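Thread: "does anyone have the structure for this chain?"

Original post by V.I.:
We have the sequence but no experimental structure in hand. Need at least a predicted one for the grant figures.
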Amino acid sequence: MADEKKIRVAVVGDVQINREDPRSAFVHVLDSLKDGDFRFCQLEATISDQGVVRPDVQNPHHRVPPKIIEGLVAAGFNAVTMAGNNNMDYGPEALFDTIKRLKENGIEAIGAGKNIHEARQPHYFKIRDVTLAIVDTCSILREGYAATKTRAGISPLHVSTFYEPLENIYEQPGTPSRTVTVPNWDDLSAVCNLISEAKSHADYVIACFHWGVHFTYDLAMYQPDFAYAAIDAGADTVIGTHPHCLQAIDTYKNKPIFYSMSNFVFDQPERHAPQSLKTGYLRFYGFSTESGARGNPHPRHCRDTMIVHLTFSKSGITAEITPAHIGEDATPRIVDKTTPEGKRIFGLIKDLNAEWQTDLEETPLGFVLPLRDKGIDTRALVRKRMMSYPWLYRLKVKEEQCVSE
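Reply from O.Q.:
Generated one for you, tokens below.
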């Protein structure tokens, strides 16, 4: 007898479409996206012609024309997560206009609202006889972007940051430090309570976090804290976005955790966008905006990406990972693992997961995450690291080599 409580969900990472033909954005991956009962992504821009950009916004290119919604519709997205660090750049006018346009096109917007109660609320989706809930929240918070009891905005989950010297600073002035991040326990408790509530009303719950440090493969200390707490509260899967590049995959209590899904489509064709990025936060990391892809001013390693298919059933959760790459035309394509590009990306995914001792079973098209608990606590592994972000230097050297070739 068929499992009546089985659904298949396709997920991709950060999406910002801004091109002449928005329907072309997913043209090479449509079959994979539509191989599922439900599809969602992280929307990294407001889709609107309303609002005024805040004067403190460093890169004002995260609002795209209304016609761009055609791309999301063509790809068959059922929902987008909107608890992101750019979606209040043009104020509540652009945010609410975006939500309205999405709803008019049958796409649900999650993680933002007229107040904190609305922004944090789980969203429920009936897929045949299965109820799926999605909870979305953000730790990348510019002042004034978080929703409050009386202010519109995005669903917040605040983090405090401290720097711990590795040696005695009196004996060794200037010693390197480790970056320690601590969750705001009131926020985390509130989000976990909502996850528990969602689990009481839904068959399956996906918890989404916009978090981490951009442009590095390294995990921030708080990421596994949030992920494990979400699963303890009842989440069946954790999906992470924001770093713009891939990060590790983890398991806890036989539940998958994707710390960063990477960029999937990230168009910024305006001529000023590369300059604002280059003179802004990219200069702190020493990365170039020369990605090698048209209208895609991010570091080159941000073009490696993936599509994840989650199958939820009574017997557990199956996670299939399909590696992909953003081409020179800024459009994602599934990679063939027999090609040099495919071998490189398959190898990268293996390397990222080796650090956290996550086993992946390789398939002809990608990987399957085994349905077993690895028995290793990633929270403890992160805390044992002496250097917080060891990948940053290696990525900088690698990119310099690519740009010079």
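V.I.: this helps a lot. The radius of gyration is 20 Å.
O.Q.: and The domain at 7-404 is CATH 3.60.21.10 (Purple Acid Phosphatase; chain A, domain 2).
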